Sequence to fold (546 residues):
Amino acid sequence: MLGLMSDFPLLLHRIIDHAAKFHGERKVITRSVEGPIVETNYAQIRARSLRVAQRLERDGIKLGDRVATLAWNTWRHLETWYGILGIGAIYHTVNPRLFPDQIIWIVNHAEDRMMFVDITFVPLLEKIADKLPSIEKYIVLTDAAHMPQTTLKNAVPYEEWLAEADGDFQWRQFDENTAAGMCYTSGTTGNPKGVLYSHRSNVLHSFIAGLPDSKNLASSDVCMPVVPLFHANGWSLAFSTPMVGATLVLPGAKMDGASIYELLDTYKVTFTAAVPTIWLMLLQDLEKTGAKLPHLKRVVIGGSACPRAMTKTFQENYGVEVVHAWGMTEMSPLGSLCTMKPEYAKLTGDARLDVQMKQGHPPFGVDMKITDDAGKELPWDGKTFGRLKVRGPAVAKGYYKVDSDAVFEEDGWFDTGDVATMDQYGYMQITDRAKDVIKSGGEWISTIDLENLAVGHPKVAEAAAIGVEHPKWDERPLLVIVLKKGETATREDILGFMQGKVAKWWMPDDVVFVDEIPHTATGKIQKMTLRKQFEGYRLPGVEAAE
Ligand code: ADP
Fold:
């Protein structure tokens, strides 16, 4: 027997309809790429998204077509998402920080038909446009007054293009399983892989993301997604924020500490989210200026492990609660968040920080397990680590135009490529990426743990641990350090600080100081590049190979 409930397909444009109807006046504030602050609201965003949809159809864009965006977080970018998906086309966010060759590869693989682009990225595109044959037209996200001279094919300023539609338009209706969005993983090894979100998966994920033990968003929040829309589906913030009718603050192109602080303070932001490198810049700026964060309540930190020192500083110096989160592009992206269950709620000080180093527990909608290489489930004792596998309605079951991939298992589980522990209360902690973990004498050393510890040293800005070849142990840890500006330290200072805080055999064999650690386009430490850079590095005590 079937239930007798309404047929209400989970289509994403219903989210902006809801926001416009019930939170229509709620502000959407952007630091525009052109410079000035621009204020609009959900009612206007919806009205203009409808015009985007109408205008796209006039350009011949139809169900299933891919439309790329190469853009910062702005109100215009948000409008393009809803306009594209509202006709059953697919927003394809391209990460401008990728190498040009990767952008070419991704756009060609996705066969994008049009591209919305910020003025910032026009020069970058002009250099590669002749290698992007599928793109018929470029819409530059600005008005006529700021339109740059460009050689891009059929380039028009967004505002002029949009003015040609009157908005007398209805969203198209289609099955909720229709594709809505696309995002390629960075592909640190091999080619990038396209993840294809559906309307249904994104709507469900948006519910999941807003739950109290997730991002706990409400209409009373002022939410600033610093994480770009082009990073892993924008961490769902383009959907979960309007879904609850929270005020939205969009930082545009300026992500330095001072600019982020200015928005946090001026607009009394209560909730924000980004990768640790962004918060490193903000905290350094605050340290310099002595400014405080009286309005900010919660910051979600993920994408890479959040260092203990960062959590401690936010919480103890600024009274801001850190919610450590883990996820993947393939998971829409949220997988787990470290909010306090009653079992841990009473903990304070170091014991609380210990828990907050974990990436947390999954909300309903994400199932999770750890297994050995043979697929056997491992115990939840907080110590045993294994392959982390997940499944759920917002977890990918395949990559775009890839026939099969071993990471998608037959019974619906996705092998994340991460190695993790689970504790008795279901809190997961990432030990490492399987390919980054240091294999010393058959045992594993977590690079994340070593890095976390090293950045606790007051003079250290950033740390990366990598495995270096060793004749006896296969690999031993080398610690690569960037010191805070103007600071000096020696190998012995750093090792002395770490001594006794990790197992003896985990201690790095050597420490090197560098000016900069390479990062991926999404702010992760580029371990592959570092390993290459230090290939053949001779650790102390190791004889030179004859
Ligand atoms: P990209 O490489 O494009 O940034 P993802 O955002 O999908 O791709 O990267 C997902 C991976 O990032 C995870 O599999 C995990 O290794 C890492 N990651 C994400 N969040 C965390 C976290 N809080 N702690 C440690 N690693 C994390």
